[in-house]
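Subject: design request, 103 residues
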């Protein structure tokens, strides 16, 4: 099944926004709704970067070999670009869907 990259990016961004909103309301989570915008944006940036990473890691325990694939300059640049797109999508989703309904 092929998936459009924009659809994937928007879907992941929506999930990240939902997750951050859920965590803000969770009593066990250290960051509350009153947390600064900078803290929440930092969490969003980290989540966007993790969602965009195309680096794979494989460990063969029998041979004792750790293989890291995709760690190239081109992939790192692509991760940066995809992370910025993810942040933009998160902001659009938050301001368009979550914030208007928040009390």
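Subject: RE: design request

Done. Sequence follows.
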């Amino acid at each position: 099944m092929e998936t459009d990259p924009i659809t994937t990016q928007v879907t992941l961004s929506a999930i990240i926004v939902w997750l951050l909103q859920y965590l803000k309301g969770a009593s066990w989570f250290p960051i509350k709704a009153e947390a600064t915008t900078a803290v929440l944006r930092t969490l969003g940036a980290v989540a966007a970067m993790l969602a965009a990473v195309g680096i794979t890691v494989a460990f063969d325990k029998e041979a004792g070999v750790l293989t890291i694939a995709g760690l190239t300059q081109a992939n790192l640049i692509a991760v940066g670009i995809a992370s910025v797109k993810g942040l933009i999508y998160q902001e659009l989703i938050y301001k368009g869907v979550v914030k208007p309904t928040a009390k």
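The longest strand covers residues 56-60.
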